[in-house]
Write the structure tokens for this entry.
Amino acid sequence: MLRRAPAHVTSTSPEIRVAFGTHVGTHDVVEWRVKNLAGLARLLEEHRSAPDGGAYISAAAMRNGIRNAANAAPTRVVIIDFDKLTRGAAKALVSALDGMACLWWRTRRSTSKRPRRRVVVLIDGEVGPGDYARVHATVVAELSARAGTRLVPDPTSTNPSQPQFTPTANARVHLVPGEPFRAPPVDSAANTRGTSDDKLRFEANKSRNVDLTSVAGWLRFRGCTATQIEGALVGLNKTLPTPLPVHEIKSIAHSIGRYAPGHAAELLIKRLSEIPVEQLQPLWPGRLWLGKATVVAGLMGVGKSTLLLDIAARVTVGGDWPDGSGKAPIGDVKAPIGDVVILSTEDGAADTIRPRLEAMGADISRVHVIQGVEVTDPKAKHPGRRLFSLREHIELLDQTLAELKDVRLLIIDPITGVFQGADTHKTADVREVLAMVNVVTERHQVAFVGISHPNKAEGGSAAYRITGSLAFTAAPRSAFIVGRSRDPDAPDRVIFAELKNNLAMKQGSLAFRVVSKIHPVVGSVAAIEWLGPADETPDDILDPGRGSRSRAVEEKTKVASAWLKGLLADGPVLAARVKELACEARFSRRQLSRAERALKVTKEPSSKGGPWVWSLPPSKPK
């Protein structure tokens, strides 16, 4: 039989619900309510575990002695069992509990080598059975963040209807004063959802992903890292009737971990007078800048990749720039030469990149080629070698640039080949990835150059011709177009023309041609011979006929204007008659429209409700 409730237990103003009863039967169950953790600690010490009884302090209030969380009342405590702790993790856990209102004690099977702990955390607000597992995972992740290590709870403690027993006879209940844990807002739909077979019920695989992603989002909101989120989701996943594969749990944690923590978000603002002036450091003065992004676009086969290899060769040996603006890299006096990192998904490192660079006189010991990413986790979805992705592996790139230290140039050919997981036609996706790259390149003072291609559109401005989103042109600080010259006497002449430059005055175009050099092993390889300044613009390169078409249109407009001026010289003419005569004179509607705009023809009705007439504007008095 259970003893009578002590004086510090009250049946009014409930704070914490506690259900006492046998852990094997469904009778002799009594629900008590205590005001605070101190009262709960005294209650637990007076009612320690016995062979025939225990305390159920979980979301299941054990109403009517039924072990079914669907009948449970809300709770203000979350109970976590840590049964697989190391000595270091146990100490870190106790330290993490400091300042968090909770109770903890050593469980029955705890030893010095394999310590076990049970933690009862006070929640700021009531938690229903449908949301218990979410809050449980959030508390675990918070403790992991505080402890600086991954803490994995026993899966059974995430079940709100699982009986939780009081301490053993020789266990001391530790009361930790502090603030109640602030749980994430409760989803009313999730909170009213019942459970089945002592586990959270998920009706479809999609629901499992959505629920776990929701938990991960709240963990990230509280500042937990991707690793800590993964640890919490692993424990929660084990409680599901059909757990998700491990690689999906890792994917959810990694995806959510990319977002900024919600609770730590604040608007960063600073007086401009407090921001020190920094001078831009050029790699190629006026064209390429350390810490900034550049895009180089051109048709296939014009020599874009060879051109970038020529630039890379000059960086590795501190060579002269072809426009006479200095030596590379001029921006860093302490490092007259620099390293280059190349990622090419089109050219082979052994048969193309190295032979060309050697023929150009590069120091190939300063050139590093990214060959992919090696996934060593055998449980990963795609273990082994994978393609590098800016969105997924930006942290690896950051780490690599930090280790190499002297990198001055990063070349990606083509840039759209490393956008896995992002839509290259969506401005938001492109800007998100390029922003992450800018953070890394600015931190390490590396000039980033991405190679791209023009789209199939014709007749428009060259600024809109780079394939993919307009952000590929707008986000980089400089952009260049590479294409054949329009000079019929020099068919092998290629133009390197500036499309935009946000950091310097407009630079003139440069001409070059692709020549052949002999490599001792592979024989003939491509190289660059610079020819000096050029007059062609990006529009001339991408749309050679644009200038001639414009001149033809201008001539036709002059002829149509002269005809229309003569027609209207004797006075107003009905608009319908003008169009009829223009058709007889073989002028198109567009030509007539250009002519009337050029002459600034007056259009007005002949009378109220009458037909419209055209007339020449009144001449200005001399």
Notes: DSSP finds 16 helices and 28 strands in the chain. Residues 546-567 form the longest helix (22 residues).
